[in-house]
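In keeping with the milestone schedule agreed at the kick-off meeting, the structural modelling team has produced records for the first pair of proteins. Each record is given below as a sequence line and a structure-token line. The laboratory manager (R.T.) confirmed that both were archived under the project's standard naming scheme.
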Amino acid sequence: MWARLGTLWEELRSGLWFVPGLMTVAAALLALALVELDRRLLADGDVAGLYFAFGGGVQGARGVLTTIAGSLITVTATVFSITIVALQLASSQFTPRILRSFSRDRSNQVVLGVFIGTFTYALLVLRTVRSAADEGQTFVPAVSVAVAIGLALVAIGFLIYFIHHVAESIRAAVIVDRATADTLRLVEQLFPAPIGASADGAEILPEPDGERRVVAAESAGYLQAVDADSLFTLAETSHLLVRMELRIGEFVLPGGPLATVWPASAVDDEITDGVRGAFVTSPERTLQHDAELGIRQIADIAMRALSPGVNDPTTAVNCVDRLSEILVVLGNRRAPDRARAGEDGCVHLLAGGTTFERAVDLSFDQIRHYGAGDPSFAAHLLVTLGDLASLVPPYRRPVVVRQAEALLRGAREQTREPKDLALLEWAAAHGTRRRDGRS
């Protein structure tokens, strides 16, 4: 349940409507409260003592509120248009996988909320303004109109900020930095991720004897989250062994395996529903628990930059640098134990997860393939791999070394110019010295 609630919360906070909706409701409540305050102040005759209160009459108040409401709804439409254009530019120039980061950008949500909230506030206050010809008693909510003017000035400030923010947010360096920050936050959150007690040596456990039951998915989708706590508790209380068959971010087909449970004789419909309920799928991958998606976003930007249609190796270099930053942090953290044992000392859960080796391959396999033909980029990647290898524990260096060796072979095959070959050999030697701790 907690995994599903967390997924729902992530969907809410990632949408462009949730925060603006809350701010609109707050603006409506503020309008009702201030209008009531105006009624009481008018009844007590205290409005004249407020220096900041609106001093005009009925026509003036209506004119001010009408102008604010009319202009802000136009500005809101413009802001939405600018946002959509920014999303289209980012999607076509970088990768469609960064669109969610734009929609979940808190600045965009707050700006839209300020405009829509101010419009709603002005509209609700406007309906309370009355002249003597309307209902026999003049009512000008002086404090409410003054606050409307203040909110309009605040909205102007947010408009200036929004123009600057959109211009900044579609820059390649800013997009890559945002994806890096989101991924690093996930790495710090997920590594390690304790569930039950550690079972040393569980990585080489043989498959248990006896009949097994495969719990299948009822619908297709990407695995977005797993409630590992409830899955472990279910397995421990029922004296079962549950092995997850999917990693976060992988796609499952209808009827595809979610988990395997031993022994099959102890698995009934209730346990099957409990295991299936711990897996949360979605039509798309999200950065809620999927650190590999963050790596994939940056790698996709690098590959798009290396394509002949874009030809932007500087952006690709930036992506390689930020991927290495993520891998240094990941490489120096202990991965969560795959096996989780209960208080009885028995293993009850075999979980799946991202490993350092998988992250390195995901980061550089395709970049290495597409970038081997550019000697300058290949040289930079060789040096970067040497730096990465020097900053992670020795037992994790072989996967980085394999990437460097494969890159050097591919670059040699595609390079014929002696000067470029010399650059590659220098970069390879320099990366090796960095890896071995030699200057």
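The second protein of the pair:
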Amino acid sequence: MEMLVAISIVLVFMTIAINERDDFSRSVSLDNVAHEVALTVRQAQSYGISSRGSDIGDNVYDFSYGVYFNLDSLSGAFRLVRYSTGSEGGNPNQMEVVNEYQLPSHIELAEFCTFDNDLDTATCNDEGSGIVVFTRPNPDARFFTSNGNSQIDTNNIAVVLENEEGRQRTVVVNLTGYIYVE
């Protein structure tokens, strides 16, 4: 009898531990993806203010780098892109994809938001999208609509990632180039 009680107690604890491990794994996966998005934006910033992508004799001011988020067509991906035509960036017709990052199947780009000072007053929608662009020599970010036709007049953008359980992580990019995960 004591053996059955001991075995049942161990089984209860093992069941709880296994369930908590799955929740923990999904939470860590969402955190990792949010940090990967932030690092990709930081990489675009670093490339944008350096002379990466130019050959000797090229005008290094002709190169911009950015990250392209499109919730409509790329809900499972985001792109590190380069503009090499001397454009001010933002125009998808003039961008070259440097790298495309696939999101895990249980995580999606949920919203693209703009806000000035307080994330609580953000204007978000799940159909929006945009491009964060960095151009030499300025480390400041510029934000464009996904079609690149207009610059978004805002101090911050937020990219909201969501897993299948509804948990969210937000990557915020400030106009001054400050990038963080919330």
